[in-house]
Amino acid sequence: MAVSLQEKATPxxxxxxxxxxxxxTPDQFIDxxxxxxxxxxxxxxxxxxxxxxxxxxxxELLKFGAYFxxxxxxxxxxxxxxxxxxxxxxxxxxxxxxxxxxxxxxxGHVPMIAGHFSKEAQDRIFTRYNGLALxxxxxxxxxxxxxxxxxxxxxxxxxxxxxxxxxxxxxPTARLVEEGGPKGPPTFLVPLIPIDDVEVLWDSWxxxxxxxxxxxxxxxxxxxxxxxxxxxxxxxxxxxRSGELKEGTAGTRLHGNPLYLGLTxxxxxATIASxxxxxxxxxLDEFEQILRTKKTVNPPFDLRMYAPDYQxxxxxxxxxxxxxxxxxxxxxxxxxxxxxxxxxxxxxxxxQDFRTGALxxxxxxxxxxxxxxxxxxxxxxxxxxxxxxxxxFRDMAIYRTHPIAQYHAAAIGxxxxxxxxxxxxxxxxxxxxxxxxxxx
Length: 440
Hints:
Number of helices: 18
CATH topology of the largest domain: Butyryl-CoA Dehydrogenase, subunit A, domain 3
Strand order of the largest sheet: 8-9-3-2-5-6-10
Strand content: 5-15%
Radius of gyration: 22 Å
Helix content: 40-55%
Number of domains: 3
CATH superfamily of the largest domain: Butyryl-CoA Dehydrogenase, subunit A, domain 3
CATH class of the largest domain: Mainly Alpha
Shape: globular
Structural class: alpha+beta
Distance between the termini: 20 Å
């Protein structure tokens, strides 16, 4: 039986949130992102030093509601589709991959917030900072959460908190600890904590502390004995399995949009892939500039754009980048179709969501090939520090160290899902399907 979201959706109360870009169409929104490219590229070195894009860029993004891309209309948002957001992410990363990464991983988690928290909690969340719910989501690697009267107490240190530069909240996935020790498979909960209750280690990122992505805002943050009300905590299991519930989430009922099932599995892969697709285009932009302005090192000493030895790698990289973006956009369309199928009564399993993410993994792989091809053909000067080919290659190299970029592991998971087998990778993050899982 189809789920009628319009019937289930509650009336939209009048909640005033200032969004200067309200009313922009998706294409107009993308145009505003692209218009910032000269400014963002000009501040690349400053962004690396800062550990995230500079305040002037942040102020420009505020001017057209760039942070409201996926936010529900109820709370002043544009409520764009995933496809529009991924297009925006590609263009931000084309301006600068690190800046794109910082923007995506602060802005892109709104569907989880608007999906998994109650109306009363969302009313508080989306009005506390004039609607800005910029909340990096961190995997369960560095902290614990303990039940107390009225809520939970959270402790831990989470590194690689991408998007921290202008965050208003954090979502650190934490392992539930109970008196008497473990009582079964681990349960992972996700508290939403205001930035005022978090210690950000601002010296932990930027200033060439890593090989690349110095502008990604991936600062370490610390939470010490912070009390979080019960309605500000949800489960990572829900982030993966809410599509299996006919009744959906609090967000699907409140906002009338299946986007707010708030699923993370393929979507997380898509957000990372969008940054790599943008990096591929950024690298091609720089390589094209080299071909149009530099001459060959051998006779007839003509511009490199006329030499087949340079045309060939440029053409290969161009094909890789175009195919990468096509995979990413195809994912967005398939994901939207899955959401609409859910709305019509067809469950969306975590395994199915995981399989859909294969398109995003392939998009990122093709983008990496584009970056590598341009870098290797760019000449020795491309390896010099301060050059953009050098920058984009280093940013790509840091992506390749991410767990999600270990393609052999992803391939095993895709095969398991396709063959109808359990996917241990899902249970490792979200919690056991058959174990001590929380109510969703």
